[in-house]
Amino acid sequence: MYQGLPEPPALGASALPDGTFSGASVFITGAGTGLGKAIATEFARLGAAIIIASRKPEHLASGAAAIAEVGGRCLAVACDIREPEQITAAFDRAAEAGFMPSILVNNAAANFAVPAEDMSPNAWRTVVDITLNGTFFCAREFARRHLDTATPGSIINIGATYAWTGGPGFAHSAAAKAGVKNLTETLAVEWAPYGIQVNGLVPGLMPHDDMTADIQGNLARTHDKDVCQPAMRVGRPRELAWAATFLASPYARFISGHTLVVDGANWQRRALTMPEVVPVREQMGREPFTL
Ligand code: HXC
Ligand code: NAP
């Protein structure tokens, strides 16, 4: 009997023909780290020019270096996606450089584990502002430019499975990702007449070295992650990148308003006899709540 889902091909293999994105540019938020960097690198391997938009210079530099390593062209632009005028400026920079994007990947997000009763109003606002509002502002900027020039485009919004299930310990992020999924469906219908596809893409647990200390700390507190997944393994960032390039490729032109989950069926997992419930604050080793 096979022990879990097979390993994917090695890093560097591409699922699509060489040059699939030659002449195209892809605007990817948060592409200096983790999954965004993996997606950007895969688009670059297939010939796309990449625009990386994020806040921190060290992340912009790291993303640009990864694209250079695969021989790609890259424009790295400092941009906080909570600020619509910074997004407009980033698109202006891309257009001036001759890289007007035909693909947008809304990958940037914010997240940290915190019991809902401990969450400050500003913590809630920050996560919703980056994850949901930032996604809408970028999508709006992209679509307005394509409507103006009557050119087609493709938007991919990166989500999370707790958009459907709720996410104990992640009330802010789960609510924001549910908003992103819903927004994907609305925008797909509104903009299809103008040739703009809008899809969602959801990774399962895909650990990587750039994960924030907060997320890594929470993962490290508990047992080995592979055996907790039906696939008997966590996901590889390149598996998400292959799905992203497919969704934005000419082979997926009739797919819109769909959210694709790449998680080895983990989000549907239920046990015949459910394990004992442990309150989130206990899972996080916190003292009982007091006002
Ligand atoms: C409780 C916290 C907190 C924490 C921040 N806050 N970290 N509250 N627990 N661990 C609160 C702060 O106290 C503050 O509220 C408010 O949040 C804003 O914090 P700032 O540090 O001022 O915000 P900012 O500098 O804008 O940074 C945003 C950030 C940061 C979200 C806090 O972590 C960040 O930049 N993250 C980007 C990368 C990221 O989050 N990646 C994760 C994606 S992974 P007060 O009230 O004090 O002012 C993902 C899914 C992974 O989404 C799933 C794995 C299981
Ligand atoms: P990550 O490495 O922490 O990346 C998050 C990125 O978002 C960073 O590069 C960060 O760059 C950028 N960002 C944050 N706030 C921003 C802002 N205000 N403006 C512009 N950029 C901002 O996380 P990841 O694991 O790669 O996650 C990528 C996506 O996958 C996210 O949408 C996440 O929710 C989703 N996801 C990941 C997993 C997983 O297992 N990894 C699971 C489920 C869902 P700066 O700091 O430079 O701004």
Question: Can you give a write-up of this model?
Answer:
About 40% of the residues lie in helices and about 15% in strands. The protein has a seven-stranded parallel beta sheet with strand order 3-2-1-4-5-6-7, sandwiched between helices. The termini are far apart. Helix 1 (about 35-45) links the parallel strand 1 (about 25-30) and strand 2 (about 50-55). It has helices at about 35-45, 55-70, 85-95, 120-150, 160-165, 170-190, 215-220, 235-245, 280-285, and strands spanning about 25-30, 50-55, 75-80, 105, 155-160, 195-205, 260. The chain is built from nine helices and seven strands. The chain has a single domain (about 25-285), classed as Rossmann fold. The structure holds hexanoyl-coenzyme A and NADP nicotinamide-adenine-dinucleotide phosphate (NAP). Hexanoyl-coenzyme A (HXC) binds near residues 109, 111, 122 and 215.
Q: How many runs of DSSP E, i.e. beta strands? A: 7
Shape: globular
Strand content: 5-15%
Highest CATH level, the class: Alpha Beta
**Overall pLDDT confidence:** 96
Helix run count = 9
Spatial order of strands in the largest sheet = 3-2-1-4-5-6-7
Largest sheet: 7 strands, parallel
Helix/strand class: alpha/beta
The figure for the number of domains is 1
Radius of gyration: 19 Å
CATH architecture: 3-Layer(aba) Sandwich
